[in-house]
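Q: Can I see a sequence and its folded structure?
A: Here is a first one.
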Amino acid sequence: MTGNDSPVLRVAGRPVGRYLVRPELPARLSPRPHLHPVTTLAGTAVTESRPADHLHHLGVGVAVPDVEGHNFWGGRTYVRDRGPTELDNHGAQRHTAFQLRDPDGFVEELRWVAAGVELLRERRTVAATGLTPTAWALDFTFSLTNVTQGALTLGSPATNGRPGAAYGGFFWRARKEDAAPRVFTAEHEGEGEVHGRRADWLALTGDTWSLVFAGATERTRRDPWFVRTEEYPGVGSSLAHDERRAIAPGDTLVRRIVTVVADGPLDPDGAATLVRKAVGP
């Protein structure tokens, strides 16, 4: 990894991702460190940042639309009985320090701040690992600790009254192409079948690339997947799907997602094989 504000992740010396530590962004985009671009080993980009359809989609990172009423996702806030509404309620994730920096990963400390108050402190661990000559894995763990004196609750548009919109948590804005990508799990295929379901892994594939997302802990695997393919290509793991999620003072919420990044389109057997290699049986 090189550079103070944009470390580069490498697999066997090959650059596969750039981490933007202090992106200069408008407040309404909820500024936050994120990975972009992320590429396959052959160099195909598999992320987008600030696309025209959703300017607040920033590559790969952690974003939550409602932390006790503060927007750490960006864009409009979904308000019950009003719909998407422009509010002056955006927070920001601020890089504090790297505890560890290596060519293949890092451990970072961040502060989640809104209205001049620190709400959450995060420890983020990111590591890149080679799997095959055409595939590597991005191991992404985030730990959110409530540093306030009271309970904090995390919400989503779904918990605020918009069915099917339980986004918030780990989120990957993928490459947009002329045709929508294929999406499938071991048991289901298509956006309508996989969105909102729990599955050990979920694959998104284009003509020349594949992403396979896997919950790497039992607790992470209990979060349903948030999936979009037709409107835009994006996958996330829902922290607040059916109800708001509370974090007591001093408590920590931890999630770990491992994403296989592969050249070429994978089928279900190929995706499952790479997940076993990346995460274990």
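Q: Show me another, different protein.
A: A second, unrelated one:
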Amino acid sequence: MLGYYERLAAALLPMLADRALIRDAIISVVFITVLMVCRSLMRRAILRRHDLGPEVRRRWLVYLRNTALGVFFLGMIFIWGHEIQTFAVSLVAIAAAIVLATKEMILCMLGSIYRSSSNAFTVGDRVEIGGIRGQVIDMNFVSTTLMESSHASQHQGTVGRSITVPNSLLLNQAVFNESMLGDYVLQTIHIAITRTDDWLKAEVVLLEAGQLIAAEYALDLSRHARELERRYALESPMIEPRVRIFLDRYEEIGLQLQIAVPLGQRAKIEQRVLRMFLQGMGVRASSATRDVK
């Protein structure tokens, strides 16, 4: 038992040695005592005023209580101002450490707020964020989940992976929403031929391939274009396929087909156009390839 009191005294000794702390504690006790005595005397004096109505006395008692509380808080702030300032500095340091430790989480939440306030996209839209393209399948406060688009290219085929993107990217990356204006997008297909090839025939074949495919959904596309023109006050978008010619390289002639395609069928239609172009140009598969098929 004696050892317990010795440990207690050893723990309290540094605190008791702090004269400023003892002084502030004594002043606080005296201040609270004086405040309580004054409040009690004034309350008793108000209650003895029988010449005042009950409502007036009740109102004065409320004023007295609120004034006493205000004086109490002001007095405590004045007495313990130095300690409060030291404690506030410690809180600021702790808050700064917390902010630094959770910086990415805070940025993700701010990105979520930005996405919601700007209505950048919603579940089901096809978007591109920081070079990552896909369909939005899930959203929360810290991340956005995309199903990667099956975009066929020269070096990468259909993938269809699930990608989780932090919402902090929304604050410093442009967001391309392919679904913002409806169910169709303008697909561009590039084809390069040599200067010795018949570029007039290639242009006609490529344009006919685009027209044949666009004819399959021409009615729905036309109705969709009129709806966009009415809803967003836009000029009538281009719905007929067209071919543009580029001479960026001396040894090549570039052909660019622009065609409106339904969302989700860009890669499929691109492959159909390329196959129809090769067939129209008379390019045949080798005998070894035919044997494999």
